Amino acid sequence: MKNRRFYTLFSLVVMLGLATGCDKDFEQINTNPNVPNAVTPNLLLPNIIRSGANELVGTGWSIGNIVIQHTAKIQFVNEDRYLWGNINGIWNTTYGNLRELENMYTIASNSVPVQRNYQGIALVMKSWYIALATDCYGDLPYSEAILGKTGVTSPKYDTQEEIYNKLLADLETANGLLSPSNEAIQGDILFNGNALRWKKMANSLRLRYLMRISKKKDVKAAMQAILSNPTANPIFESNADQAALKYLPTVPNQFPTYTYRVGSIDEFRLSKTMEDRLKAYNDPRITVFARPTVASAAAGNPTYAGIPNGLDDVSALVYNGGAQNLSRIGTAYYIDGFGTPSDRELGIAQGMFMSYAELQFILAEAAQKGLITGDAKAYYEKGVKASFDYYGLTLPSNYLTQPALAYDPAKALEQIGTQKWIALFFSGLEAWFDWRRTGYPALQPGVSNLNNNRIPVRFIYPTSEYSLNKASVEAAIQRQGPDNINTKVWWEK
Prior knowledge:
With about 500 residues, this protein is mainly alpha-helical. The chain has 2 domains: about 90-215 and about 460-493, Serine Threonine Protein Phosphatase 5, Tetratricopeptide repeat; about 240-245 and about 260-455, Serine Threonine Protein Phosphatase 5, Tetratricopeptide repeat (Alpha Horseshoe), CATH 1.25.40. Helices cover about 50% and strands about 5% of the residues. The protein contains 20 helices and 6 strands. A two-stranded antiparallel ribbon has the order 1-5. It has a two-stranded antiparallel ribbon with strand order 2-3. A two-stranded antiparallel sheet has the order 4-6. α6 (about 160-175) runs antiparallel to α7 (about 195-210). The chain is globular and about 70 Å long. Mean pLDDT is about 90; it is low at about 1-25 and about 340-345. It comes from Rhabdobacter roseus. InterPro entries: SusD-like_2, TPR-like_helical_dom_sf.
């Protein structure tokens, strides 16, 4: 009995010792030094940039290039005939990243000292994402969009006017926050930590979005204020400044189409609309946008040939004698999509958030309309040259002296709009947005379209909104118009 009590007491002492020993340095032993315990802005930023660029490239490839007649399809032609269902990629990517951007901004704000550059970057990317989404769909959840943790599970849809007011204010705030003298920026796969380039992007985007709403609001003072103080409000000054994600040969930063099946790539060919325009101008950019037809290359006489948009399946497959007589997309966008080092520097296969050429055409239009002071002709010619430079091409000496291209105030807006459309080749959806606003160039609906001879002007809301947020989406439809691909959004009405 005595021995039993002794062993029981001994066991208790041993167990207590083991328990105490196990607890000693427990947290240190069980902490993986290679896994962060707290998220920081530099960990969130790469995917925020990458996922936005990739979605822009993917949706641009499948819909944007088609609807704006940069490319056309030779099979599986529903998109080219405007038989559009739900196109949810932009929606899902936007709202997924709005949560991350809110986290990024909050973390930067709560840091000691406050990380002003990360705050500014969060506002720039947040504004870019929501502008992309609202230009696709119209009215959207925004002010209540990411308040689920507070109990807001059915966010209201803000009007597009309200959204634009907020994003323009956020970009102005971002401009004030961003500075090379603030904290170092890490995780920046877009500008490699250059705060000044983020600042230039903020102000260049302000000019893009002010021009976007210029039919609905007087933007003259706001645009001129940006340009009148370049020290406080710097903008892109060359192609070296523009916001373009340079893709690399390896994952996760490969050009998205590089991973597509060959058959999926070959469904897309040069649009005859683009072919006709480039050939009329003797424009060498056709050599970047497309490849010579297989048949002509084999015959030793390489030529480029496009196909009309919106043909039915049978007509598309046999047009001009078949696929061997139609130009595929340029190699830079697929076969060489990852780019050689020199290609990457030229920027041929990039995720284009906004280009310097686009900015010059915005300024040309603004000057022509009297919204800003400046030489509209000079801006126009800078835009054309910037586009050629971007593709590593020399601007022919006689290009801008051709009757159709020599700057003429009487037809300047058409000239600017058409050159902007060419320069925006495979730049996501920006060419579509701009065409909806300006009507340039004059496009005809696809030949055998299924939309009553109308080119679509928006995406329909995701089906999930009707089951998860029905009252809010129906209120937006009541205000905006029917939820179909022909209802214009606020800024284009």
